[in-house]
Design a protein that fits this description.
By secondary structure, this protein is α/β, with parallel strands linked by helices. It has twelve helices and 14 strands. It has two domains: 211 residues, 3-Layer(aba) Sandwich (Rossmann fold); 39 residues, no CATH class. The strands form three sheets. It has a ten-stranded mixed sheet, with helices on both faces. Strands 7-8 form a two-stranded antiparallel sheet. Strands 12-14 form a two-stranded antiparallel sheet.
Length: 328
């Protein structure tokens, strides 16, 4: 990378700038996973910036075209997108589906699988149709598109197995009592292999993860320096699922709309190398609090001010010198 880092950790580096430019500095065929939650195509402008629905597909494609070139042949591109309504109507926008089709038909990605992130804690919206007129239910599901450079990206579902149900646990304790191999009406041949303990159940493509962060060290540190935390953070368990599923230790992960750098934080905790690209400097500076926290108020403010004034901070040294805590 030729650009100056905002901060450096043991495994990764955060940069402030346009991710199209920053991606261009990486070698082709070098990234294992690009995972991001970009600004959604919403009707009302948000603090973090978002495009109008009509412009969104062509705008996002300028990033995706570079991503495709930079991914390894076994690499993946995971995009979290929230839904939206059309202006003034109780009719859903198709922008996220139009984007998916464009990225496959025009840019050249393979569509590996669709995922749906259900956030039970999400507040009812849009207010006009849900709360006031009561003619729609609340929108609590984001679409997550898993795209790949080629049809067979790296993936291992054994890394994201879920806990067995109570019924399955009983079956494993005494297969002969609870289980009888037979053909199902669906045509599936359910053989004796279904009674094997494989360490967990294969997860579905519906990810139920609450987004309820309210008192983290990141949020407390933001308050100390007088900055509002990023308003559209996704919970760590969302990128964690895909990092575990689609990468191995020491693989390279990139977030091209890093925001508060949840993806980098997850990659760091799982021993993956990472780059985060974010255009707004205040978001980059406060994202450092995910990796260095605790200590006294002057230390936190010093870290923030160094990044905001353009200094490149080696967090490994800064943590030791200022007796801060490092992210686990």
């Amino acid at each position: 990378m030729y650009s100056t880092p905002a901060y450096i950790t043991e495994f990764g580096t955060a940069f402030c700038g346009d991710s199209r430019t920053l991606l261009g500095e990486l070698p082709d065929d070098s990234i294992d996973l690009v995972i991001t939650s970009p600004p959604f195509a919403l009707l009302r402008q948000k603090d973090y910036g978002n495009m109008e629905q009509q412009e969104y597909v062509s705008w996002f494609a300028t990033f995706a075209t570079i991503v495709l070139r930079k991914l390894k042949p076994t690499g993946s591109f995971v995009i979290d997108l929230g839904g939206a309504y059309e202006r003034g109507l109780p009719r859903r926008s198709l922008y996220n589906f139009r984007l998916l089709i464009h990225l496959c038909d025009k840019v050249g990605f393979s569509f590996a699988e669709d995922f749906y992130w259900h956030n039970p804690a999400k507040l009812p919206s849009p207010i006009e149709w849900v709360n006031k007129r009561k003619i729609r239910v609340k929108d609590s599901v984001n679409t997550i598109w898993w795209l790949s450079k080629e049809p067979f990206p790296k993936a291992d579902v054994r890394n994201v197995l879920t806990e067995y149900s109570a019924r399955m646990k009983k079956l494993l304790e005494d297969p002969e009592k609870f289980y009888r191999p037979k053909d199902r009406p669906s045509g599936h041949n359910i053989g004796t292999g279904f009674s094997n303990d494989n360490g967990g159940a294969i997860p579905s493509n519906l990810l139920q993860i609450s987004n309820t962060e309210s008192n983290s060290s990141y949020m407390r540190a933001c308050s100390l320096v007088g900055e509002r935390q990023h308003p559209a953070r996704f919970p760590a368990k969302v990128p964690e699922f895909f990092v575990k599923f689609l990468t191995e230790p020491n693989d390279l992960i990139v977030d091209i709309f890093a925001g508060s750098n949840t993806s980098g934080f997850v990659a760091e905790s799982l021993g993956r190398r990472w780059y985060s690209f974010e255009e707004r400097l205040s978001y980059v500076a406060t994202s450092a609090f995910r990796f260095a926290h605790g200590g006294d108020e002057p230390s936190i403010k010093n870290l923030y001010e160094q990044i905001m004034t353009g200094n490149s901070v080696d967090l490994r040294k800064f943590i030791k010198q200022n007796r801060l805590f490092q992210a686990a």
